[in-house]
Write a structure and sequence with these properties.
alpha/beta; Alkaline Phosphatase, subunit A; three-stranded parallel beta sheet; two-stranded antiparallel ribbon; 7 helices; 9 strands
Length: 264
């Protein structure tokens, strides 16, 4: 954020996460460094129905801002628990689904499993809407979407874990979407084929180098070998686990794949 401000960008923060909770208050203080903020969720608990469609109107407002260079952060609730509260009533695409789900789930586990998939469908709709609205402005820029963590929802054998546990990690807890959309103007000015980068092994802990590569920044400490979009990128070990326990980190690639059932 500060890097973009130093580069002359007007900065914006749009969030649909709670602003004053034990978990988010520090992030809210951090967000005050931007030039303008939109706090769309005044709930005190995550288990409340505040849909990510809340961010679409302020996003359009920011797109209409006359600043020549803009850096916009959109912070979504995404697919956080409680999954059923992440999408509007009547939009549970996988309600009562029994196809391609792990065997042996209880009724409550099956409901959570299907709610999570429905929440992901709604999340896809929000991301598509943001891209559509951005594209409509005929921009010279890019949109990068990613999650800060994954979620285990009964996919990994023995299909009894929901949520995240750094002491007992699974691939689903650490596997996240990482999507880059570039405008025609930006692509014309920066002709690059990112299709070759899709299967690179990468950790979002190196994001600042990838962002800097896309933004065209160079500075002391910038390392293109740590930017997934750079031709100079080099794969390294992706350490995961509990950073507060001695010798607790493990190589992500050492985790078993499981049976991968239920990828709907």
């Amino acid at each position: 954020m500060n890097m973009m401000k130093q580069a002359g960008y007007k900065t914006f923060w749009i969030t649909n996460q709670q602003t004053m909770t034990a978990r988010n208050t520090m992030l809210t203080v951090f967000s005050k460094q931007t030039d303008k903020q939109f706090y769309m969720n005044q709930q005190r608990t995550q288990s409340a129905r505040e849909y990510d469609s809340n961010v679409l109107a302020p996003f359009k407002e920011v797109l209409a801002d006359p600043a020549p260079k803009k850096f916009i952060i959109v912070h979504l609730l995404g697919t956080h628990i409680k999954y059923k509260f992440r999408y509007p009533d009547g939009q549970g695409k996988f309600d009562n689904n029994i196809d391609h789900v792990p065997a042996g789930l209880s009724n409550d586990e099956l409901e959570a499993y299907n709610d999570y998939d429905s929440a992901n469908v709604y999340n896809d709709h929000i991301i598509a809407s943001l891209i559509k609205d951005y594209k409509a402005t005929d921009p010279n820029g890019f949109l990068l979407y990613f999650s800060d963590h994954g979620e285990e929802v009964y996919d990994t054998p023995p299909h009894k874990t929901q949520g995240r546990n750094e002491d007992n990690p699974t691939r689903h807890m650490y596997t996240v979407p990482f999507l880059l959309w570039t405008s025609e103007k930006w692509q014309a000015a920066h002709p690059r084929d990112f299709s070759q980068d899709v299967n690179r092994k990468y950790s979002s802990s190196e994001l600042i180098h990838t962002w800097s590569d896309l933004a065209g920044f160079t500075y002391d400490g910038f390392d293109p070998t740590r930017a997934i979009t750079s031709p100079q990128f080099k794969e390294t070990t992706r350490w995961i686990g509990n950073p507060y326990k001695k010798n607790a980190l493990i190589d992500y690639d050492s985790l078993p794949y499981g049976d991968q059932i239920g990828n709907q």
